[in-house]
Design a protein that fits this description.
heterodimer, A: 152 residues, alpha/beta, Cytidine Deaminase, domain 2, seven-stranded mixed barrel, 3 helices, 8 strands, globular, B: 490 residues, Ubiquitin-like (UB roll), Rossmann fold, Oxidized Rhodanese, domain 1, 3 domains, eight-stranded mixed beta sheet, five-stranded mixed beta sheet, 31% helix, 18% strand
Chain lengths: 152, 490
């Protein structure tokens, strides 16, 4: 199994995720992470995010603490990724007024392999950003390191 | 039928990194079955442990969602394509932490822990879900416990042990021997002491680093708002309806969460009221039950461990609210049945017409809750009916004189086994059909434990034509106090 321990993202894209979270506050923001996995020596995989695909939170009953996307959103994101030679490698969402830790709800709805970036937004100000991957046996989320890359 | 199954990217690692595979199947269910036989690792990501398709797995045949076809029995034909499309959802924990909000006058907020505190709370600190940040939230939290009895015991002990920085205790009662079977904060030495003082001594011994404030008073409509206003979370550990409505209303008026628990015999209930957008106690029980319908612990009894379990769940919910962790019980009523050893859950919804927390509230200040609940005075032992009485001392001297008195015991058989006055046993509920066992020409003295049920019996018998009938004032409890201390009180 190829568990990437590192997620590379440019500081510019990271800032975009943060400002998306600030924009939708007090509601949750969400979107797709488009990128690519690169294998090094057949084992060590690192994952790089090359683009974002911001989406609209479809939960109008409790958008402050839930987000969900339709199948069409997912298919659209996959199509957008394919068009630029990338894959949907994960998803991001915000936790308004909550720490950037996966909730039980996140865990219950998570897919393996995807990276889940969570940004905490406290009172409109984006704070901590973390990334998580579900373990193979679905029992837990593992934190993966976010390596901020300065734009070339 | 040869059908193509498209595997979504996150699952390809479990399917030999293939984007799709070919199976032969007549239905979607069969196709998925073959897929998971071929790639065993896929099973737990697509299906729950009891074999149901997971809620966040969408399956399409060509471009139709099978939910709108025949679900897993949807037929497939040659050349069809089945796509598994991930449904993406997530969210933050449901609760909003009431103490993580910026507070005014936060000058005294603790920002560090001493080395002793770090050692004391090390099992919290090493959990990322609590950590230093969470422990400081606990230290800065202010929780008010209403009642220091059966529910208050585990609540006080666990919240003090967890390091809740400021605990308020409200109770007007005094420890007695019947409390010790379940109120584990107290020891035998505490009997006769005020409960708040005894609890304070025990809790500050458990954790000297926290501040414990005692309010040895009855919670009333006059003092509730003033008592509550300095605390973040109110925990209801009371045993009567007037106080429950009062706690609820005061919490809603002040916008504070109310961690609610109640117990009766072998059953308990727990939930969290007063959260933003959540229901309140009045949404669940708009009207109090008729007085006397739901007996208190003193009347109905309670298994001693039960408040330990229910109070511990309340303590856990309180700590989760402080940490802002997990999903709170707001909007869910947790029911616990100790005999069946089962937990059940009911959904609670906010009533938009609720006079307290609805869209147009009509209650704007605490009301008279005894009147609302139809009870006057806390215990209301003397019913509204006035019946002729005899004191224990008078009964004793008349029996000693050899007067012809028939002693009627209207308690239950298991109470008779605890102690009795050699009376004739007819439980109150059986009296109407066993009335022929009584001789209306003889003088009858009816008694129970406290004088309450026997007053009803006397009232009933008088209406049935009995004229020479008296109620033993204060029941066996008074008999033990005034006549014969060898008769146990219970």
């Amino acid at each position: 199994m190829s568990n990437a321990a590192q997620l590379k993202i440019s500081s510019e894209l990271a800032d975009k995720i943060r400002s998306h979270g600030a924009e939708t506050y007090p509601h949750e923001c969400c979107g797709a992470l488009l990128g690519r996995d690169t294998e090094v020596a057949h084992r060590n995989v690192f994952r790089e995010i090359h683009a974002l695909y911001p989406l609209v939170n479809r939960r109008d009953d409790s958008p402050r603490n839930r987000f969900s996307l339709t199948s069409q959103d997912v298919l659209d994101a996959e199509k957008a990724a394919r068009e630029c030679g990338l894959e949907v490698v994960g998803w991001y969402h915000s936790h308004p007024d909550h720490p950037a830790r996966p909730s039980q709800y996140d865990r219950d709805h998570a897919w393996p392999w995807y990276s889940y970036i969570i940004v905490s937004v406290a009172n409109k100000v984006p704070e901590e950003m973390t990334s998580w991957r579900l373990t193979d046996d679905r029992s837990d989320f593992e934190c993966e390191e976010i390596c901020l890359q300065q734009a070339a | 039928m040869s059908v193509k199954v498209i595997i979504p990217t996150p699952l390809r690692v479990y399917a030999g990194k293939q984007e799709s595979t070919q199976v032969s199947a007549k239905t979607v269910g069969e196709a998925l079955g073959q897929l998971t036989t071929q790639f065993g690792e896929l099973r737990k990501h697509l299906f729950t442990e009891d074999g149901k398709l997971r809620s966040f797995v969408n399956v399409y045949v060509n471009d139709e969602d099978i939910r709108y076809l025949a679900k897993e029995s949807t037929p497939t034909k040659d050349g069809d394509t089945i796509s598994i499309v991930p449904s993406i959802a997530g969210g933050s924990p449901k609760v909003q932490s009431p103490v993580s909000q910026p507070q005014t006058g936060a000058a005294s907020k603790a920002t560090t822990l001493s080395n002793e505190e770090i050692l004391r709370y090390s099992r919290h600190l090493i959990m990322p879900e609590v950590g230093m940040e969470g422990q400081l939230k606990l230290k800065n939290a202010k929780v008010l416990l209403i009642g220091t009895g059966g529910l208050g015991a585990p609540l006080g002990l666990y919240l003090a042990a967890a390091g809740v920085g400021r605990l308020g205790l409200v109770d007007f009662d005094v420890v007695d021997f019947t409390n010790l079977q379940r109120q584990v904060t107290f020891g035998s030495d505490d009997v006769g002491k005020p409960k708040t003082a005894a609890a304070q001594a025990r809790l500050s011994n458990l954790n000297p680093d926290i501040q414990i404030e005692t309010f040895e008073t009855k919670l009333t409509s006059e003092n509730a708002l003033d008592l509550f206003k300095d605390f973040d979370i109110i925990v209801d550990g009371t045993d009567n309806f007037p106080t429950r409505y009062l706690v609820n209303d005061a919490c809603i008026l002040l916008g504070k969460p109310n961690v609610y628990g109640s117990i009766f015999r072998f059953e308990g209930q727990v939930t969290v009221f007063g959260m933003p957008d959540g229901p309140c106690y009045r949404c669940l029980y708009p009207e109090p039950p008729p007085p006397g319908l739901v007996p208190s612990c003193a009347e109905g009894g309670v298994l001693g461990v039960l408040p330990g379990i229910v109070g511990s769940i309340q303590a856990m919910e309180t700590i989760k609210l402080i940490l802002g962790a997990g999903d709170s019980l707001a909007g869910r009523l947790l029911l616990f049945d100790a005999l069946a050893m089962k937990f059940r859950e009911l959904k609670l919804r906010k009533n938009h017409g609720c006079p307290m927390c609805g869209d147009h509230p009509t209650i704007t200040k605490p009301i008279d809750y005894y009147e609302f609940c139809g009870v006057r005075g806390e215990e209301a032992p003397a019913l509204n009916v006035q019946v002729p009485e005899i004191t224990p001392r008078d009964l004793k001297s008349r029996l000693d004189r050899g007067d012809d008195l028939f002693v009627l015991d209207v308690r239950e058989p298991h109470e008779f086994q605890i102690c009795n006055l050699n009376g004739h046993l007819i439980p109150l509920g059986e009296l109407p059909r066993r009335v022929h066992e009584l001789d209306s020409s003889r003088e009858i003295v009816a008694h129970c434990r406290s004088g309450k049920r026997s007053a009803e019996a006397v009232d009933f018998l008088r209406k049935a034509g009995f004229r020479k009938i008296l109620n033993l004032k204060g029941g066996i409890l008074a008999w033990s106090d005034e006549v014969d201390p060898s008769v146990p009180k219970y």
